[in-house]
Amino acid sequence: MLDFTISQGIATLRLNRPQVFNSINRELALALQARLRECQADASVRAVVLTGTGKAFCAGQDLGEITGPNRPEVADIVEELYNPIVVLLRELEKPVLAAVNGVAAGAGANLALACDVVVACESAAFVQAFSKIGLVPDSGGTYFLPRLVGLQKATALMLLGDKVTAAEAERMGMIYKVFSNEAFDQEVATLAQKLAALPTKALAYTKQLLNGTFGNDLAHQLRAEGDYQLRASATADYREGVAAFIEKRQPTFTGQ
């Protein structure tokens, strides 16, 4: 249901329900929450990859779970299952790479957009599918998408439920990069390794600054930058980075 591995500082969380396009049920959502907390607590983890198995990244909520006789309230599912995942992704003090290996629809699309860096294979697509079943976007979609592509484009995509190809998503700034299907796995591995080799605390501080930027005016953001710069300059990785620059060599960061 959720495959989890750690190798060379990279934790990979792979949604593994390919028979239902990796749609999310309660068990999978809670497992994802638990593994993200584990990634936060494990100092050996320097970067996290979120991806899927098979033809889809994630088709969103498993509708079979919310249509039975003992179905939970949709609002409870959002509050208990999806919102905690979004918060964990944003507050995780390590970079999170979404490797979108296929269709990302509904909450699946928005969980990808909640990650720090999003890449996709050329055959992937993103769909804000909520309006097609009479629901509204959740999982942070109405927060992240307008900030990525602008209000007009985000509004149209959410109201109309258009399918956005990976190439279109890259052009409109929704995602970072598109890779060919053939090269996708290797490109994801290379990018994850690069993230894992960078100064982890500085990346975490950068992430926290970005989390606050849209709620701050310039004066508050400048003060926040100063505060986090002070923290970053006290790290071992800062000292290593400066030493490597002076010595004209590649730095070896430890995440400390």
TrEMBL record:
Gene3D superfamilies from the xrefs? 2-enoyl-CoA Hydratase, Chain A, domain 1, Lyase 2-enoyl-coa Hydratase, Chain A, domain 2
Q: Is this entry keyworded Cytoplasm?
A: no
The record's InterPro entries line, in alphabetical order, gives: ClpP/crotonase-like_dom_sf (IPR029045), Enoyl-CoA_hyd/isom_CS (IPR018376), Enoyl-CoA_hydra/iso (IPR001753), Enoyl-CoA_hydra_C (IPR014748)
Checking Pfam families in the record gives: ECH_1 (PF00378)
Membrane-crossing ranges are none
Keywords per UniProt: Isomerase
| Alphabetized GO MF terms | isomerase activity
Assigned protein family: Belongs to the enoyl-CoA hydratase/isomerase family.
> What is the protein name stated in its UniProt record?
2-(1,2-epoxy-1,2-dihydrophenyl)acetyl-CoA isomerase
